[in-house]
Amino acid sequence: MSILPNHILIKSFNFGSTEYYQAKEIRQKYLRTPLGIEFTPEDLNLDRIAHHIMAYDDNKIVGCVLGIQENNKVKIKQMLVIPDYQEKGIGSLLLNKIERVFYDLGINHFYLHSRQESLEFYQKNGYIPTGNNFIEVGILHQRADKFY
What's the pLDDT score for residue 59? Predict the structure, then answer.
């Protein structure tokens, strides 16, 4: 892992804000367009109830993640760090921040659906694969859970 740039800022933002639309644009570019999919009304409804975290390098968005509370657990979704900023610790900072937001509310169970190529990253951050692999949005995924 490279040294984290000291000017990276991790912060929350609200649905409908300028930051939200900037993050939505990079989510589309890096997570959806390669799969030939667009945001659906259902996706946008989930965005409304999600907690959003973003990583900035100066004024440039370089990563983001969503957390959606489901009773006593949180689903981590749409995690991404743009390619030029990967392997610098930014993804771990994003995960830590979203987990901390919900942990401070008394929630200690987190889960996600990881693409196979990202599973090792999540395991390094304390997530444990559970269940069988499955197809989601046309590609192989693995559920992983983390408990504090």
Answer: 85
